[in-house]
Design goal:
three-stranded antiparallel sheet, 204 residues, alpha+beta, two-stranded parallel sheet, 7 helices
Amino acid sequence: MILGDCQQISSICKEVNVDRIIVALDERRRKLPIQQLLFCRLKGIRVDDGMAFTEEFAGKLSVAHLHPSSLIFSNGYIKPAFFKKIKRYSDVVAAAAALFFFFPFCLLISLAIKLDSRGPVLYRQERVGEDEKTFDLLKFRSMRIDAEENGPVWAESNDQRITRVGRIIRKLRLDEIPQMNQCSKGSNEFCGTSARKDPSSSNS
């Protein structure tokens, strides 16, 4: 239901007793009713950005309508020192516990990989972590050793490069277990953003 235009915001808010305004304009330049919104703020009415409201209400961001300024002025990148320490300790404890629990499975998976196809048990891929530091990400090898001889290619469903054992451990996510080693060293996070792949690196 449309009650009026942007120049009538303050009078509409007073008339229908509005206590919150959500600003959800795709383009704000020369369209944002600044004076009307300031008047509402001075009257104690809460004014929220549409992106912030979507994140609060739905628990996710609308990437299609995300403005660069929302990222620049966001508080989400600020991590207090005590939070970093707690996060680091929790990563180490969780990674150590996971490695201890999955150790017998690691032996069985390693043996199965060696019996199934020739090549190393582990697959290494250079990744870029925090502060642009590179490190070798480890996984159990799930493809033939010549899978990327012509360069990296995205895996597809029913990919013929995937070995029989590889198909099983990929489905169960068991190929990710060796990454716990990087989590314990601090190169990667046990729970958080994954380190991105370095496009200039070669895989082994």
